[in-house]
């Protein structure tokens, strides 16, 4: 097994492990194939546990700095403990407890993720690699917008056919899709949210290498993909990314020009692309004032949020249980018997981070999440400027992903929960790395 220490030019050992970035990049690149991504996560977790034990027997904590290890573990605990506590009186306690136990596999993998940004060289590899992956996804989606086919998904689908005899999605999924699906395919319409959440990594790398022109080119390409991907929640997320990232690169005046240009581009797309026009029209129904128009504009979110509020009110201590929203929904449905905007069947989750935490894990869960957020903020507040610079891409990605004034995917689902936990670890590992001076990040 390769050494887990690197040496700087001055001979001082750096925390980290040189193969950690490869594990993280492989995990992200394999997201379109969930089974393989999960295998990378589990094997990486086992490797991280071995490396940590080995490092301690050798007389030190060399995979991670002590503060990075502590913050990563605290943030995971703020995520996992609500799940564990909510499991005792949910619809199926034994199954819920098994699910909570299975989620523990994420913790050692998060230590590995944090180790992938624990020194300057590993941090450069990880952040650059993630930016390249996002750039490839964006380019693939732009090709789909022109040709109607995602080359990446086509290759994945063909490989799936060769292995199992059937494709990644049912045949009717592609026919019914009304937006860009990209590398994830027509039966997994999360492209907009994924690109928006990870876009700070691409914009940071573009501005680092090519200054303002690079940032502008990357921002325009990502913006087109996110609008055509159709998720209005990702529009809000990306607006935050542009605001928080752009002012440092462009200044406020030029950034205002970027937003003006973006509004004009959105208007052009609304006139020329029926799917974009439909989403703009649906959004404007909020101004009608009628509660049914508002619920339609929100794609049924109003009905879901009322149900989530009911669950939080009836189960205030520890909620109805993580991922048990669908079982509790019929008992809290504010419009039983009326067909929902999303179609048949119950709602699957609350579509909003605060309501998801309150309805599924109760006040205890919300307090634990707030405690984790407070620790993350405290670490940022007391970090020096060099540490903040090197952690800023991960910090921005995490902030826009959990921004509470938006709608969200389920944070306790396998996919979105894994993405969020990875951002936790990237933030903690880069902020609290041992090397406080990183010229590449400061550039």
From TrEMBL:
<keyword id="KW-0436">Ligase</keyword>
<feature type="transmembrane region" description="Helical">
    <location>
        <begin position="63"/>
        <end position="82"/>
    </location>
</feature>
<keyword id="KW-0812">Transmembrane</keyword>
<dbReference type="InterPro" id="IPR007016">
    <property type="entry name" value="O-antigen_ligase-rel_domated"/>
</dbReference>
<dbReference type="GO" id="GO:0016020">
    <property type="term" value="C:membrane"/>
</dbReference>
<feature type="transmembrane region" description="Helical">
    <location>
        <begin position="24"/>
        <end position="51"/>
    </location>
</feature>
<feature type="transmembrane region" description="Helical">
    <location>
        <begin position="415"/>
        <end position="433"/>
    </location>
</feature>
<feature type="transmembrane region" description="Helical">
    <location>
        <begin position="215"/>
        <end position="235"/>
    </location>
</feature>
<dbReference type="GO" id="GO:0016874">
    <property type="term" value="F:ligase activity"/>
</dbReference>
<feature type="transmembrane region" description="Helical">
    <location>
        <begin position="255"/>
        <end position="273"/>
    </location>
</feature>
<keyword id="KW-1133">Transmembrane helix</keyword>
<feature type="transmembrane region" description="Helical">
    <location>
        <begin position="127"/>
        <end position="146"/>
    </location>
</feature>
<protein>
    <submittedName>
        <fullName>O-antigen ligase family protein</fullName>
    </submittedName>
</protein>
<dbReference type="InterPro" id="IPR051533">
    <property type="entry name" value="WaaL-like"/>
</dbReference>
<feature type="domain" description="O-antigen ligase-related">
    <location>
        <begin position="218"/>
        <end position="370"/>
    </location>
</feature>
<keyword id="KW-0472">Membrane</keyword>
<dbReference type="Pfam" id="PF04932">
    <property type="entry name" value="Wzy_C"/>
</dbReference>
């Amino acid at each position: 097994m390769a050494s887990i220490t690197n040496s700087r030019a001055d001979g001082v050992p750096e925390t980290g492990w040189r193969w950690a970035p490869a594990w993280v990049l492989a995990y992200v690149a394999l997201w379109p194939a969930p089974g393989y991504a999960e295998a990378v996560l589990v094997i990486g977790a086992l490797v991280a546990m071995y490396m940590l034990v080995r490092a301690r027997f050798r007389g030190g904590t060399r995979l991670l700095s002590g503060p990075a290890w502590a913050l990563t573990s605290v943030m995971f605990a703020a995520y996992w403990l609500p799940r564990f506590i909510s499991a005792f009186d949910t619809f199926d306690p034994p199954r819920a407890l098994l699910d909570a136990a299975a989620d523990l596999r994420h913790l050692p993998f998060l230590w590995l993720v944090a180790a992938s940004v624990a020194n300057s060289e590993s941090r450069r590899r990880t952040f650059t690699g993630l930016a390249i992956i996002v750039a490839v996804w964006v380019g693939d989606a732009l090709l789909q917008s022109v040709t109607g086919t995602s080359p990446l998904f086509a290759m994945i689908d063909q490989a799936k056919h060769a292995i199992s005899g059937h494709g990644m999605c049912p045949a009717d999924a592609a026919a019914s899709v009304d937006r860009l699906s990209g590398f994830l395919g027509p039966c997994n319409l999360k492209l907009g949210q994924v690109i928006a959440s990870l876009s700070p990594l691409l914009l940071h790398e573009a501005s680092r290498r090519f200054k303002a022109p690079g940032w502008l080119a990357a921002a325009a390409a990502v913006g087109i993909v996110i609008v055509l991907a159709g998720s209005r929640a990702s529009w809000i997320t990306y607006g935050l990314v542009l605001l928080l990232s752009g002012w440092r690169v462009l200044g406020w005046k030029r950034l205002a020009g970027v937003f003006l240009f973006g509004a004009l581009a959105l208007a052009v797309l609304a006139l020329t692309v029926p799917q974009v026009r439909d989403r703009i029209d649906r959004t404007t129904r909020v101004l009608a004032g009628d509660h049914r128009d508002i619920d339609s504009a929100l794609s049924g979110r109003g009905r879901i949020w009322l149900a989530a509020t009911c669950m939080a009110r009836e189960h205030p201590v520890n909620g109805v249980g993580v991922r048990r929203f669908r079982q509790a929904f019929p008992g809290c449905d504010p419009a039983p018997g009326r067909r929902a905007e999303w179609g048949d069947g119950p709602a699957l989750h609350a579509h909003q981070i605060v309501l998801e935490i309150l309805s599924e894990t109760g006040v205890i869960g919300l307090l634990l999440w707030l405690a984790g957020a407070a620790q993350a903020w405290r670490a940022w507040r007391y970090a020096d400027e060099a540490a903040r610079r090197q952690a800023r891409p991960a910090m921005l990605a995490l902030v826009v992903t959990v921004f509470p004034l938006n709608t969200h995917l389920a944070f306790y689902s396998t996919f979105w929960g894994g993405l969020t936990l990875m951002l936790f670890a990237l933030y903690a590992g880069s902020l609290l790395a041992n090397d406080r001076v990183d010229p590449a990040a400061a550039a």
